[in-house]
Amino acid sequence: MSIKVFLDTNIYQKYNFSFNNRQFMKLKELAKENYIELLYNEVVFREVEQHIKDNVKKAAKSYNKMIFGRFFAPFRNDARWNKTLNRINKEDMAFFLHNLWIDLLDCSSSIKIPIDVVSVDKIVNDFFEKKSPFEEGKQFEFKDAICVESIKQFHNKDGGNISILTGDKGFKKSFEGEEGYKLYDDLESFLNFVISQDNHLATLVAEKYNNVEVIGVIKKQLEDQLYSASIYVEDSYETKEIESVKIDSISFKYVDNIDNESALIVSSAKVEISVKYSVLDEDMSYYDKEEDRYYWMESIDYKAKYSFDLDFLVSFYIEIDDEEIDVRVDVDEVDLEEAIFLKEEDKTDCVVLNREEELIQSGSIRVCPDCGCVLTEENDMGAFCSKCAPNH
Asked: At what angle are helices 42-67 and 90-107 packed, to 10 degrees?
């Protein structure tokens, strides 16, 4: 019998509406094999649609602003790059994500829960009595209240158990203590539950994963991967050096693929990285709008620490012992699926190291090393312009 599961809007939002990512692809795979049935209602459908439009609008604006900014000035008029640097169309991107969203619903044996059966009187009463999902500081959660009540009405009619995925405490509290509901904070924990119900080998591998020696091997391989990884710092001009890597903990998420010889496991780690990088100081740099290029650039070097959760993959070799009904595992590979982007919100410490100056010459053009203005016959005082020369 398939497991019915309802994903709150904040779950789709948590995974950035990336409907082709590993977690959603696994969800679709389990649905096609009739292990799960995805539930949704009109509220969730409309919220996801609206979030897609809002996110794409922000992404397109940010991207278009960047490629027509100063850093891409040398490439815009070059035939090798100008097609690559075309503006992106937010309508096309939104339509693309919309189709992926519809495909997820179509491929997941989805059931649309009606909301016209919801009692408005009950919701209004819950609002005034401050019952979940209405809470202090979140008094106007009428959309959540409609979702909660529609799920309960569907459960009363259908009679089967429902798994509910949500990151909202008030939403979750609405179902606590009631029979017929199983609550999860994220997709990974739900996927692990579904897979372990039907695959005994996956359960045995999960148990072996937490062996101290296995964790030690995974940790060492992950550290090596991080030191050689492509790492980008938000708003930086250049990432210079990874100074240190610290792994606080490693967690099993779920078995993504498994057979009698190998397993691929989605994992997570709490990581602290210390990195050196530089940021362009726009106020101390000189950019000529007419020439569309910098004559003088000054950057600030920083050293900062970042703490964040990192998802990665672990490959296991499996050897099955039928007599003991057990498995032996060896760590084959630890894999970072993509480059690491260090966000400002994850920064825990930061110090200024020094400033660097770069004089950018073009042909016979000379600039003042103090203010960055172009030296001409009228203002050239030798090493400096007429304005800055008195300071030396």
From this structure: 150
